[in-house]
Every structure is written in C-alpha cells, then in structure tokens.
Amino acid sequence: MKKLDFIQQKAREQFNRQSQNYGKGHVLEKLDDLLDALKHVAVRRGQLALDIATGSGHTGLHLASLGMQVTASDISPMMLEMTRKMAEARGLAVETKLHSAEELPYRDCSFHLVTCRVAAHHFSSPETFVREVVRVLRHGGAFILIDGTVEDDQPEAEEWTHRVEKLRDPSHNRLLTPCRWSALCKQSGLKVKYWSLAQLKQPDLEWYFETAATPKKNRVLVRKLIEHAPESARRLFQIKEENGKIVWWWQRIQLVAFKAAS
Ligand SMILES: C[S@@+](CC[C@H](N)C(=O)[O-])C[C@H]1O[C@@H](n2cnc3c(N)ncnc32)[C@H](O)[C@@H]1O
After folding, report:
1. If you measure from the C-alpha of residue 105 to the centroid of ligand 1, how many angstroms do you get, rounded to a whole number?
2. I want to staple 56 with a disulfide (CB 3.0 to 4.6 A). Which of 13, 22, 133, 225 is the partner?
3. Mean of the pLDDT values across residues 8-37?
C-alpha cells in the first residue's frame, strides 16, 4: 500500500481509536438502506463481493449471510479486528484486507458486487475511489454506494453540515451531493440505475460526540453552530430538541450503478 495521505492517515487514527463504538448497538447495525439498495441487484450465492471501508462489518457480514464470498476491507486495522470478531460471533466467514478505498489491490474485473456504506465522506479522493471500483468490478457487476449527503442546490445547508461534521470528527472530508455522485459514476463509465434519498435520525447530540470522541472545545463550537443554524439547515435537517436531547435528520444517498456487460 502506498504511503497514506494526510486525510487517510487521520481516518485511520480516528477509527483505530474509536473502533469499539461501532460494533453491536451502533445505529449502523440497522440495514434498511442496504436492504433497499439490494432490491435493485440480483445477488447469487457464491458470487464475489468487496465491501470497502467495512468498519465493523455490518454490510459485509450481511452479504456473507446471503451466501456471497466477501472480502471486507478497511484502512483501519482495529476496525478489521472488530469485523473479524463480529463475523466469529455470527458464525460467518469473510476475508479481511487492509487497504485504502483509493487503491484497491485486486485484478481488473474481480468482483460481482462492490459496496461502500457510510464511509466515502472520509475519502481523500472520491474520484479515484469510483475509478478503482469500476476497474475491479466485473462486466455487468453492481456498485452500491450509501453515504451521508445534502440534497442538490442547498449550498448554505451543505456548508453548515460540513462545518459541524468537521468539528465533530476531523477525519471527515466532505459529503457529496447526489448530482456529484451520479456525475462521478457516469464519468467512470458506470450506469446509474437507481438512487434515492433516505433520512436517518441523529438521536442525541451527546451520543454523536461520544462516538467520535469530539474534543471539548469543538463540542462548544458545534453547539454554537446549532444555536445559529441558518433557516435552510433547520428546515432541511429538522433540527430540534426532543426530551432534552438535540436531534436532527441526516440525509443519506442510496445509489446503485452497473458496469456495462462486455
Ligand atoms: C462509519 S465506518 C463504516 C461503516 C460500515 N461500512 C457499515 O456498513 O457499518 C467508516 C469506515 O471508513 C473507513 N475509512 C475511512 N477512510 C477510508 C479510506 N480512505 N479507505 C478505506 N477505508 C476508510 C474507516 O476506517 C471506518 O472503518
């Protein structure tokens, strides 16, 4: 693996430190978004799947439970350790591989399915990532991308959420809009078959800080940003107080694209 760039290095440090928070009980365990995207893909037992930035393996392990042969990869060794533990607890087999999303150590046309869920906003180069996904996909293979997003044409709300996310977790890079993801797929030769926006509740600001070990001074700044959030962000993310907790609704993109059959 090439030397990690600054953003990749930050992501590795952050997730090595926080790996214990992403296992059982984390909101990512709920797979509604993945199940929805999988309705658009014909998955068969024995097919080869690559789950990029697998975290503690929620996505990769679901694919393994469907009978796929899964390679679960991540930039963080500690996260891969979590994946192995979760696989063992569920009696599932996955191969784990340490590498970045921007440099995939596989031959061209290796996988029937490539997935990447709630991670791409950390990547230093989404362009290189998508290009690599296309390279390792078989002809006719599918790419499922799920990530936080901000709907198109909402620059003020997008900038607000970017500042909040960056303070909360400095390894955050940038959320991309649906239009940008579709353009990246098309530029790299993928055909986007389906995309939709889903909403996911941020259930408690304090929990949100804890999962990322947000430094105290950044928590103060985030609270200020929430207090002075522009109307566009308040409306879009439905920021409010519920039983003494600050909650809001993230937007998430679910996108399914295919590599042309040869
Ligand atoms: C929120 S977790 C992923 C959740 C997981 N995909 C799931 O479905 O539960 C984000 C993961 O992205 C990984 N990551 C961040 N930047 C990366 C990069 N450039 N290449 C590969 N993995 C990366 C982190 O190490 C972390 O494990």
Report:
1. 17
2. 22
3. 88
